Structures are given as structure tokens and as C-alpha cells.
Amino acid sequence: MISHHHQTIFVHIPKTAGKSITKLFKDAIITYKHPAPHQEELYQKHWTKYYTFTCIRNPFDRFVSWYFFMRKRYKEGNTQLAPQLATKYNFSDFIHNILELEKPCLETIKPLSHWFSKGYSYDYIIRYENLSTDIEYIQKKMSLPNIQCINKTERKPYREYYDKSTIKKMSEYYKKDLERFNYEY
To answer: What are residue 157's phi and psi, to 5 degrees?
Structure first.
């Protein structure tokens, strides 16, 4: 998302409160398919002149959120592969099956590191776990309204969905993220 009025670029990483954050910017030009900075020409053109930020989230929590979002999407009529599998399998079986598939199915849940391209550093990184405090900083800096949560899923804490085998599988898949952003199960 880019806001020329606020001279801001927000890189929306899926399942990290991105829709809620984007709504704060009324004039925003929304880029679809969640591009990384190096993939979006509009970002490249303004990157060094505009204030840049993104939001990250614990990969274990993010994946649980995505699983339930895919289940919701299936109920809404989305028959793509990920929503089908999320509806067909329990969480553990979903992880073991979905991670064996080709990358297009995992586009929206790829590691956070994908959005941290060489040569593109962010001015600020919001941590989803500190969303209210971190977003307050952005709101004050740019005189934005209060954030309204969108797409929030009611569910148990993420740790209740994992077992030893899924923790291991996810730790391997998100190894770089866990190390780079100091996340752990």
C-alpha cells in the first residue's frame, strides 16, 4: 500500500493485521498479491523518499490464523486448494499435507523473510504481538484514526493447535524467520 498524502509505504504481509492497517490510510493505493518491495515498481520509485513500514507476526500464530481463514474462505465459496484442504483436514494433518505441495498454494503464508528484500530496509516494523502499542506510534506520527480490527478470527491460543511433529515441521519451514525475528514456539 502506498499513500502519497502521508508519503508512506506499508508492505502488507498476509495475516499480520494488514487490512486493518491499510484502512487507516483513506487515500492509499492498494497493491494486490502482497508484493515484496523489490516486486512492486511503485514501491521502488518512492522507497527512499517515503516512510516505510510493515508488520510481522509469530509464524506459528500466523499459520494458525491462516488455517482458520482458509476454512472461512471455503465456507464463503472459495474452492481453491488451500481452503479445501483446511476444511478437509484437522490442523495437524493440514500442516503435513499443505507443506508438501507446490509453492503457489503457499504464496500468502510464505516466510516473512520474503518481504525483507536486499536493499530495502524498513523505517519501522510493527510486531503483531505488540500491535496496539506499535500502531499507536504510526497513528501519532501520521495523525491517523484508531485502528479497527478486520478479519479477526475467534480461536484458542496458537500453542494449543501444535504437537511435537507440527512444531518440528513449522520450525523447519520458518527457520529463517524464527532466527531473524527472534520468534520461538
So the answer is: -60, 145
Q: Which of 114, 111, 67, 75 is nearest to 91 (CA)?
A: 67
- Inside any domain, residue 176: yes
Each residue of 140-168: pLDDT tens digit?
Answer: 999 887 776 666 677 899 999 999 999 99
**Residue 112: Cβ within 10 Å count:** 24
Measure the CA–CA gap between 7 and 123, rounded to whole angstroms: 12
Report the C-alpha gap between 125 and 16 in whole angstroms.
11
pLDDT band for 19, please (50, 70, 90 cuts). Answer: confident
CA distance 68 to 86: 7
Question: Are the C-beta atoms of residues 150 and 20 closer than 8 Å to each other?
Answer: yes
Residue pair 167/104 in contact by the 8 Å Cβ criterion: no
Domain of 74, CATH number, reads: 3.40.50
Number of domains the chain is built from: 1
d(CA 20, CA 106): 22
Task: Retrieve residue 118's grid coordinates.
Answer: 536486499
**Nearest of 128, 156, 127, 131 to residue 68 by alpha carbon:** 156
For the entire predicted model, the pTM comes to: 0.91
